[in-house]
């Protein structure tokens, strides 16, 4: 009988790829620590390699320079931010009273920023790579439009320009709160509560207690 061919060898390239993905993730985690500690400009590939406990040569096998690391890390963080934003503005939360709505929306978003300080450095820092900030600005426009849609249901008779101003101001207040929290990490919870107070006092006088029923704005009052 002819000899049977041996079974095919295990897919070694796939195992190498998986190991490579883990090493790349390790380097991105290290970069997040370094960027958070010293900022983007002061960070170096050598510092990132030290934080990851690998040689600079190993780092350059995965990323050609610091900017490439920042872009990859920014993409990863922005995707996580999208998930947090989607959960925070889920339809279930929109039925809550304003104070509870702010808890449901603001708390998880601030928690994300607290757990990922590199996000603030890369997305809001003045020296972050343009590709990173451009991606964030594109998503920021999506967030702005979504919040404007939500506020429009609470302000059914307001002109669109007014709703846009309220939306822009609300986001500006939120961003200012992020800056304050980042500057006072030892008092994060206290500043978090202050931010929600500011948002509540700004929005509460303008908003209806609950959104109008669909089509209600188009109904004519009875004679």
Automatic annotation (TrEMBL):
The lineage of its organism: Bacteria, Bacillati, Actinomycetota, Actinomycetes, Kitasatosporales. PROSITE patterns: HTH_TETR_1, HTH_TETR_2. Residues 44-63 bind DNA. It comes from the Bacteria. It comes from Streptomyces indicus. Residues 21-81 form the HTH tetR-type domain. GO terms for molecular function: DNA-binding transcription factor activity; transcription cis-regulatory region binding. Keywords: DNA-binding, Transcription, Transcription regulation. The keyword NADP does not apply. This is DNA-binding transcriptional regulator, AcrR family.
């Amino acid at each position: 009988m002819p000899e049977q061919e041996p079974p095919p060898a295990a897919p070694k390239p796939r195992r190498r790829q998986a190991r490579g993905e883990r090493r790349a993730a390790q380097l991105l985690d290290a970069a997040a620590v370094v960027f958070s500690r010293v900022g983007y400009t002061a960070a170096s590939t050598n510092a990132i390699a030290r934080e990851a406990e690998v040689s600079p040569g190993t780092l350059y096998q995965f990323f050609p320079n610091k900017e490439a690391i920042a872009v990859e890390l920014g993409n990863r963080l922005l995707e996580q931010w999208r998930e947090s934003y989607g959960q925070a503005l889920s339809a279930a939360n929109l039925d809550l009273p304003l104070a509870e709505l702010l808890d449901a929306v603001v708390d998880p978003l601030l928690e994300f920023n607290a757990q990922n300080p590199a996000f603030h450095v890369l997305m809001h820092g003045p020296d972050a790579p343009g590709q990173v900030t451009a991606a964030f600005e594109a998503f920021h426009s999506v967030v702005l439009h979504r919040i404007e849609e939500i506020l429009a249901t609470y302000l059914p008779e307001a002109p669109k320009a007014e709703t846009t101003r309220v939306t822009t101001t609300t986001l500006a207040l939120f961003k200012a709160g992020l800056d304050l929290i980042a500057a006072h990490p030892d008092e994060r919870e206290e500043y978090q509560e202050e931010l929600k107070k500011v948002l509540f006092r700004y929005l509460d006088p303008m908003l209806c207690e609950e959104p109008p029923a669909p089509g209600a704005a188009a109904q004519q009052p009875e004679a």
